[in-house]
Design brief:
Elements lengths: L18 H24 L1 E3 L2 H9 L5 E5 L9 E10 L1 E10 L12 E3 L3 H8 L4 E5 L5 E4 L2 E4 L4 H16 L8 H22 L17 H11 L1 H6 L3
Parallel strand pairs: 1-4, 2-6, 4-5
Antiparallel strand pairs: 1-8, 2-3, 3-4, 7-8
Length: 235
């Protein structure tokens, strides 16, 4: 009599189940949280020149730092940055023109021939104005930016995600090329999506045999959905 032994069904190998990749994914997830905290606690939010003037008129702002107006002996145009605090640190840019032949501004900035310091003092004679300098480097996302040494952390996190995408196990829900386009074109949100549902953090594991998004469709979706963010960040 022949005895038949049932063999367990084979399951598809998923490299994200290995401890080293779970550890790596957890580390990058923690790094993403640190980047988010950095933007909220140390970042500056882009605002409008008109918002600043309105806040000063309402008495909500008493101090403004001015960047880019050192000295009075210049002609042409300068992009001046104004920094203030209203709940969070904010900044706005205005183009100051001292020459009628100066070329028009771009990127939707306000253009004026009046010194912003004189405008602010006309609204509030007691406002405190100080001179400041541009930070050495910055990282930006949507309307937020982080300047100074902390600006390197978002870059490190982004490059780390790309390295994991290239050298890690096969990702979930999309091909490597698809995730590469999402991470490259969607910035921090693309990196976070990859960490959450692409495998590294093991969230919502897809069923076996699921269809994956291919590179061409991912490129089109990422380009269309995040066109506004890329334009705001000068891409």
């Amino acid at each position: 009599m022949t005895t038949v032994t049932a063999q367990p069904a084979r399951t598809a190998y998923d490299g994200w189940g290995e401890r080293r990749w779970r550890t790596t994914g957890g580390f990058l997830g923690l790094l993403a949280v640190l980047v988010a905290v950095l933007f909220v606690t140390s970042g500056e939010k882009r605002s409008d020149y008109g918002d600043l003037l309105g806040a000063v008129a309402r008495g909500e702002v008493s101090e403004v730092a001015v960047v880019g107006l050192d000295g009075d002996q210049w002609q042409g145009r300068r992009t001046v940055e104004l920094r203030w605090t209203a709940m969070v640190d904010r900044y706005a840019e205005v183009v100051v023109v001292r020459d009628a032949d100066a070329p028009p501004s771009s990127a939707g900035r306000v253009v004026t021939d009046r010194d912003p310091r004189a405008v602010l003092r006309a609204i509030d004679p007691d406002i405190e104005l100080s001179s400041a300098s541009y930070a050495g480097g910055s990282s930006s996302f949507m309307d937020w930016r982080v300047a100074g040494p902390g600006a390197l952390l978002p870059l490190v996190a982004w490059l780390s995600v790309l390295l994991l995408l290239v050298g890690g196990p096969a990702p979930w829900r999309a091909t490597r090329w698809a995730w590469a386009w999402i991470v490259l074109l969607c910035g921090p949100l693309g990196s976070l999506a990859y960490l959450l549902v692409g495998g590294p953090l093991g969230v919502l594991r897809p069923h076996s045999g699921h269809r994956r998004l291919t590179g061409g469709w991912a490129f089109l979706l990422a380009w269309v959905l995040f066109a506004g963010w890329r334009e705001a960040n000068g891409w």
